[in-house]
Automatic annotation (TrEMBL):
Pfam families per UniProt: DUP (PF00674)
Top-rank lineage group of the source organism: Eukaryota
Protein name per its UniProtKB record: LANO_0H06810g1_1
Sequence intervals crossing the membrane: 21-44, 56-76, 231-250
Keywords: Membrane, Transmembrane, Transmembrane helix
Length: 357
């Protein structure tokens, strides 16, 4: 089997892959037909229904919920299928001992896909998109604390051994300098947004324009239709109405980034490696590194995620709080296997009298 058989090498993105898989399902054409009929009746009887605004809004909500029905069914079916092959996936991890890098998990995803198709649990060999998705499913569903059902002794030992391999891979990634020395001198010299923009507001506007979906730009137009005003006035009112919402959405996205285990581990290790404490220049270097790293990993669409070193430092403290705080541990905002690495990174704050725990 070749790694080219993974869905990530056949589809443009996850959305096209999900649409392909939904189209293979038995209910897809019934779903399309029902949606077409609902949309046709909505527009065909628009004049009649205009006087019943509550009915119109109710139908819009119903159509939107109906559109989400098939993707939700797809996700539920996929999750159910993967739960049935956890023992196989655990054995693959034990035998192959993949590192924390997603490329090593591609082979585990490939073999799990083939096993799912062979056992008739999935219609094609395209169940898991890539190694990253396989990695995330493994750490969430094979962690011994997350397994709710009673397992026999063999499966229990297999899960524990597989998770021990995963934890060892995180330690190896932490101890390997080659993952961090790769930062070239020209990346250190790359300018931060603080040096490129007049102020944070202009940087936020630029970031909003590049990173938010173009569909959000329809908000001013929709507001103008709702108000029944002329196009120019409506767009101005719509822009004034939508801009705070877009800023809030973007800020929410940024507050939850980085969120994946390897991204957070890289952030923690870079801080522990440079030991910046209160040195602004070193925090600027960490901000440059993370800006490039998040861009290379396709987490962010440009190299301007952090505005400056202070912005980077505040986000770092927020991540440490999420990992080490007792209340947040109960909520499991970030995985507990990051705790020992967070404690090592927290050492610099303890010396400065700013310990987060």
């Amino acid at each position: 089997m070749s790694l080219d058989s993974l869905p990530a090498n056949h589809f443009r993105n996850r959305r096209t892959w999900m649409l392909h898989m939904c189209a293979r399902g038995p209910l897809f054409y019934a779903w399309i037909l029902t949606f077409t009929i609902l949309a046709f009746t909505y527009f065909a009887y628009w004049d009649v229904l205009q006087s019943h605004s509550s009915f119109i809004y109710g139908k819009i909500v119903f159509v939107e919920l109906f559109m989400c029905l098939l993707p939700v069914m797809f996700i539920a079916k996929k999750y159910s299928a993967l739960l049935k092959v956890r023992s196989f996936m655990a054995q693959e991890v034990i035998e192959r001992k993949p590192s924390a890098r997603f490329e090593d998990w591609d082979i585990v995803a490939l073999h799990t896909n083939a096993y799912l198709h062979e056992k008739g649990l999935w219609p094609t060999a395209f169940c898991i998109f890539n190694g990253e998705e396989c990695f995330e499913f493994f750490r969430r569903c094979l962690r011994p604390q997350n397994v709710s059902e009673v397992l026999d002794d063999e499966d229990s030992r297999r899960f524990q051994n597989a998770f021990r391999v995963y934890e060892t891979s995180l330690e190896d990634y932490w101890n390997s300098d080659e993952n961090f020395v790769a930062l070239a001198n020209d990346e250190y010299e790359q300018k931060l947004p603080r040096e490129l923009y007049r102020c944070r507001f202009t940087w936020n506007l630029s970031t909003l324009r590049r990173n938010m979906s173009s569909w959000f730009m329809l908000i001013p137009f929709l507001v103008s239709l709702r108000l029944g005003t002329d196009a120019l006035l409506g767009c101005l009112v719509g822009a004034a109405f939508s801009l705070p919402i877009l800023f809030f959405v973007m800020d929410t996205i940024k507050r939850n980034t980085p969120s994946k285990v390897l991204q957070v581990l890289t952030f923690l290790r870079m801080k522990a490696r440079l030991e910046p404490e209160n040195e602004v220049e070193k925090w600027d270097d960490i901000a440059r590194f993370m800006n490039n790293y998040l861009f290379r990993e396709r987490v962010w669409q440009d190299r301007e995620y952090f505005y400056d070193g202070n912005d980077c430092r505040e986000r770092f403290k927020s991540i440490l709080t999420s990992i080490l705080s007792v209340q947040n541990l109960q909520k499991r905002l970030l995985p507990p296997e990051l705790i020992p690495f967070a404690k090592l990174s927290n050492a610099g704050f303890e010396r400065d009298g700013e310990s987060l725990v």
